[in-house]
Write a structure and sequence with these properties.
Pfam families: GH3 (PF03321), GH3_C (PF23572), GH3_M (PF23571). The N terminus is likely disordered. The chain is an alpha/beta fold. The termini are far apart. Among the domains are: about 130 residues, no CATH class; about 130 residues, GMP Synthetase, Chain A, domain 3 (2-Layer Sandwich). The strands form 3 sheets. It has an 11-stranded mixed beta sheet, sandwiched between helices. The protein contains 18 helices and 18 strands. Strand 8, helix 13 and strand 9 form a beta-alpha-beta unit.
Length: about 500
C-alpha cells in the first residue's frame, strides 16, 4: 500500500497539518472559499453571501438563500450581461473565455463562463490525476513520459466583443503550462485547425513521427482517428506504430458500447481511465485500477449538491421543480440516482448540470454517471435510463459478437399505446428483428419497471440498423463534429424531428 493512501487518525492529521479525509469538511471549505471570492459581485450581493458566510451552517444557509438555476435561467437572469463585457456579475472581473456547449440535446450553443480560477482548479485536478497513475499496476512509467495525443476542439477560438469562445478542450490547450508542450500532441499548429476533417488528416500524416503513450478524448472520435491511421499505413493494429501506447483517458459518454470495436484496433491490452470533465469544470476521475467509479473532486474548486432523481423533484419531461430537495455530500446514499448541482469558480451557482450520478462507494466518494435528466424514457412508467441502455447494448454485442459503436432511442406512439424505436449503428451483418428481441430481453432483465410495462402499454420494440457513417453525417450537418460532441442516447422533440428528416432525405437520395 502506498504511504499516501494510509488513513491516519484526524488528531494526527491535524497535528501534522495534513488534509483530513472528510469530504463534508472539504466541501464546506470549498463553499466558503467560493463565497468569499464572489461576495462583492452583483450575484453575491443579491443573495447575501456575507450572511451565508457568517452562518453556523453555511451549507444549509446557502441552500436557503440561493435558488436552483438551470442554464436558461442563469443565462437570462445573469450571464448574458457578462457577454456584453460587464464585470463582477457572478464572479469577480470580466469573463474572457466561454466554453461553447450544446450538451447532447439542445440546438443552440450554450455560453458557459470559464475563468482563470476555474482553469487553475482544473489544472490542479489534472496533475492529481496524473499522480494517481501510480495506483495502476499495468501502466509503465515510461508511457507517461511519452507523447499524449489529445483529440479536442480548436485552440483558434471565436473572437467576440472582448471575449473568446470555443470548446473547453481548446481553451484548456491554449492555456496549457509550458512544461506540458513537449508531450502534447498534435501540437499547437494542428490543434489550432478549425476544420475537423483537415485536423484528422494532419494527425494521420504526422502519426508515424510520434511515440504516443496515451490517448485523451471522446471514444467515437479517438476510435475514428485510430482506424484512419491503421488504414492509411496498412497496419494490423495501432501498436505496430505506437508500441508504448498503454492507456486511454476517456469521458463524455459511457465507453462500454465502443470497447469491443476499439479493442480490435489494439495489438495488446491497454488500461482505460474514465474522467468527468464537463464544460463547467473537472468534476471527477478514476484514481485507481479496477475501481467501478470515479472519485469526486471534493477539495478544489467545485461545491456539489445532490437532488434525488425522482418524481418529487422532476416532472415527466425531466424539468426540475422550483424548490427541490438538495442533499450535501454527507447526506447521500449508495445505489440511488441523483441530479448534480454545482457551484464553481466561474460563477455557476446551484447550477443544474443535467447529469445524473449514483454513488457506488460513499466512503471514497466514487460515482458513476447514469445518464441525463432529460435523457431517459418513461412514456408509461418504464423509467429506462441511459445506463440501462448502455448495459443492454454491451450484453447484446458480446452475445452476438457484433460491434455497436453508436445508438439512440426514441419513444413513439403505436396505435393507442406506445413503442420504443431504436436506431443502431452496426457495420456487421445483423438481423434487425433478432437484435430488437435481444435488446428487449436484456432490458427486461436489467429493469423491472420496463419488464412490467412491456406486458402493458409499451407494446413494441423496433430496431433500425444503420451505418456508423450515418450517425457521423448527422452530427456533421448539425455542426457537432469532433471535440466534446457526442450523439444523444435519447431523442426527443426537435432533435428527433431533425433526425427523422435526415434519415428520410438520405432514403430519398438513395432512391433518386
Amino acid at each position: 500500500m502506498a504511504i499516501l493512501d494510509i488513513k491516519l487518525p484526524n488528531s494526527i492529521l491535524k497535528a501534522l497539518r495534513l488534509p483530513q479525509n472528510n469530504p463534508r469538511r472539504q466541501q464546506i471549505k470549498v463553499l466558503k472559499k467560493l463565497l468569499r471570492k464572489a461576495r462583492f459581485t452583483s450575484f453575491g450581493q443579491q443573495y447575501r453571501f456575507d450572511e451565508v458566510l457568517l452562518s453556523k451552517h453555511p451549507g444549509k444557509k446557502f441552500q436557503e438563500m440561493v435558488p436552483v438555476f438551470t442554464y436558461n435561467k442563469i443565462y437570462t437572469d445573469w450571464w448574458h450581461t457578462t457577454l456584453e463585457g460587464t464585470p463582477d456579475i457572478c464572479w469577480p472581473g470580466k469573463i474572457r473565455y466561454y466554453a461553447l456547449s450544446s450538451g447532447t440535446s439542445e440546438a443552440a450553443s450554450k455560453y458557459i463562463p470559464v475563468t482563470n480560477d476555474l482553469l487553475r482548479g482544473n489544472k490542479i485536478v489534472m496533475i492529481k490525476q496524473l499522480l494517481s497513475l501510480r495506483n495502476y499496476e499495468d501502466i509503465p512509467y515510461s508511457s507517461v513520459s511519452k507523447g499524449w495525443l489529445t483529440l479536442g476542439g480548436s485552440t483558434d477560438l471565436q473572437k467576440g466583443s472582448g471575449y473568446y469562445a470555443g470548446d473547453l478542450s481548446g481553451i484548456t490547450a491554449k492555456n496549457a503550462p509550458f512544461w506540458f508542450q513537449p508531450f502534447y500532441k498534435p501540437g499547437k499548429k494542428i490543434a489550432k485547425e478549425k476544420d475537423w476533417n483537415k485536423k484528422i488528416e494532419e494527425i494521420v500524416e504526422k502519426a508515424p513521427h510520434w511515440d504516443i503513450g496515451f490517448l485523451v478524448g471522446v471514444p467515437a472520435w479517438i476510435q475514428m482517428c485510430v482506424e484512419m491511421i491503421i488504414e492509411r499505413y496498412k497496419l494490423n493494429n495501432i501498436h505496430e506504430m505506437w508500441p508504448n501506447l498503454a492507456f486511454f483517458v476517456h469521458g463524455g459518454v459511457s465507453f462500454e458500447p465502443y470497447k469491443k470495436g476499439f479493442e480490435k484496433l489494439l495489438g495488446k491490452p491497454i488500461t482505460y481511465i474514465e474522467t468527468y470533465l464537463a464544460s463547467e469544470g473537472f468534476i471527477a476521475y478514476q484514481d485507481r485500477q479496477y475501481s467501478t467509479g470515479m472519485r469526486l473532486v471534493t477539495g478544489e474548486h467545485i461545491f456539489m449538491e445532490f437532488v434525488p432523481f425522482d418524481s418529487k423533484n422532476f416532472n415527466a419531461d425531466g424539468e426540475i421543480v422550483s424548490n427541490p430537495e438538495a442533499l450535501m455530500i454527507h447526506e447521500v446514499e449508495e445505489g440511488k440516482d441523483y441530479a448534480l448541482l454545482i457551484s464553481t469558480a466561474a460563477g455557476a451557482w446551484r447550477y443544474l448540470i443535467g447529469d445524473t450520478i449514483r454513488f457506488v462507494d460513499k466512503e471514497r466518494c466514487e460515482i458513476v454517471i447514469t445518464g441525463r435528466t432529460k435523457h431517459f424514457l418513461s412514456l408509461v412508467g418504464e423509467h429506462l435510463s441511459v445506463e440501462n441502455m448502455n448495459k443492454a447494448i454491451q450484453l447484446v454485442s458480446d452475445e452476438m459478437n457484433i460491434c455497436i459503436p453508436e445508438f439512440t432511442v426514441a419513444g413513439i406512439p403505436h396505435g393507442n399505446f406506445f413503442a420504443h424505436q431504436w436506431y443502431v449503428a452496426c457495420n456487421d451483418h445483423v438481423d434487425g428483428k433478432k437484435l430488437a428481441a435481444k435488446i428487449d430481453e436484456k432490458l427486461k432483465m436489467l429493469n423491472d419497471d420496463y419488464a412490467v410495462e412491456r406486458n402493458s402499454a409499451l407494446k413494441e420494440v423496433f430496431v433500425e440498423v444503420l451505418s456508423e457513417q450515418q450517425f457521423m453525417d448527422f452530427m456533421r450537418c448539425k455542426g457537432k463534429v469532433g471535440g466534446q460532441h457526442k450523439f444523444p442516447r435519447v431523442l426527443k422533440g426537435r432533435m428527433l424531428e431533425d433526425w427523422q428528416r435526415f434519415l428520410k432525405s438520405e432514403l430519398t437520395t438513395v432512391h433518386a
